[in-house]
Design a protein that fits this description.
This protein is mainly β and about 230 residues long. It has a single domain, classed as Lipid/polyisoprenoid-binding, YceI-like (Lipocalin). Helices cover about 15% and strands about 40% of the residues. It is built from 3 helices and 11 strands. It has an 8-stranded antiparallel beta barrel. Strand 3 and strand 4 form a beta hairpin. The chain is elongated and about 55 Å long. The relative contact order is 0.19.
Amino acid sequence: MARQKTILALFCLSCIIGFSPFCYAARPADNDATVSKEPLPSPVHFVIEKKSSTVEFEAKQQDVPTRGVFPVEGTIDFDPNQPEKSSIHVTVPIAALKISLKDARDLLFSPDWLDPERYPVATFQSQTIEKLNDTHFIVNGHLTIRNNALPVRFQFTLDTFNRNVADAHTLLNISRLEYNVGKGQWRDTKSIAEKVQLTIVIHAIGPGEPRRLKNWFGLKKPTTHK
């Protein structure tokens, strides 16, 4: 209980002094989405850019929100006109969590919570993708946390799509208890709520930007000899 109060007090203090350690990727409004109409290979293969893609979680401790951010890796094969040919695979490295409070980080990395030493990644694999309109799609797939793979269904917004880049965002609410996150005394939801909101922002690089893709992998540009 003392540890819970310490974490809560530190978080409230950080809010009072205006400290914010998180970088939020800007998302265009839905009516600003730009989806290319040019003929493209089906599906287009994209690599998710880790530096620009995030999963932000928000959990409430005694009704006070606590937030943290994970980077995102993975690949997307996507055709907005033939979503049945599309697939999404995402990997989230748990140990790369960014959160302002060391006590909160230590708690989340403990065996009762995310335990990255034993479960280093969370993953998502799509099963089906359905088109609602040019910029909105429904995804069915499996989200795996702590080796617990459970079905999830959510809607995402396609903000940008062409051969160079794909940008998308979504919100997803999950139950931490269903994934066995927060064991033992932490299963009591009076202290920390069961529901966790995930805000996912994806920026992916397509085949039209080979130089940027090389830089993402950390490869050096070729030397030009005169």
